[in-house]
Amino acid sequence: MKKIFSILILCFVFSLAALAEPPFSNDCIYKTSSTFTNETKQIVGDTNTLYFKSVVVSSATSAASLTIYDSLGSTITATKIVVDLSTVNVYPFDLYLSSGLTYTTVGNSNGVSIIYRKGTR
């Protein structure tokens, strides 16, 4: 009886440990930056690299736009994408951004999500 009770306690302890948040950052997990206002925001990756996955327009706003830059600070490199926010849609990109990601929204009031992941090539 003591062995069975001990085994059950060990199983319980191990299941709690499995549910605990890992002590590291997994670069393979996608992250989301959501905005409902007009803003400019910079997202810097590990060693300043990001994989830009997609844009999700969850609620349309007429005459609104989202601009994505491959940039670090005020230095903008080659990538510049403009997404029209007047249609609910998912826009897949799958782009490697060498410097980081900066986005600017104009006329946005209903919400847009930028999906990306940090990491190196």
Explained architecture:
With 121 residues, the protein is mainly β. It has one domain: Jelly Rolls (Sandwich). It has 1 helix and 8 strands, in the order αββββββββ. The strands form 2 sheets. It has a 4-stranded antiparallel sheet, with no helix packed on it. It has a 4-stranded antiparallel sheet with strand order 2-7-4-5, with no helix packed on it. A hairpin with a 2-residue loop joins strand 4 and strand 5. The protein is elongated and about 70 Å long. The N and C termini lie far apart (54 Å). The mean pLDDT is 78.
List the uncertain runs: none
Placed side by side, the strands forming the largest sheet appear as 1-8-3-6
Order of helices and strands: HEEEEEEEE
Q: What is the CATH C-level name?
A: Mainly Beta
Radius of gyration: 20 Å
SSE topology:
Elements lengths: L1 H18 L11 E5 L4 E4 L6 E8 L7 E8 L2 E10 L4 E9 L3 E6 L5 E7 L3
Antiparallel strand pairs: 1-8, 2-7, 3-6, 3-8, 4-5, 4-7
Summary, kept brief:
Helices cover about 15% and strands about 45% of the residues.
Give keywords.
121 residues, mainly beta, Jelly Rolls, four-stranded antiparallel β-sheet, 15% helix
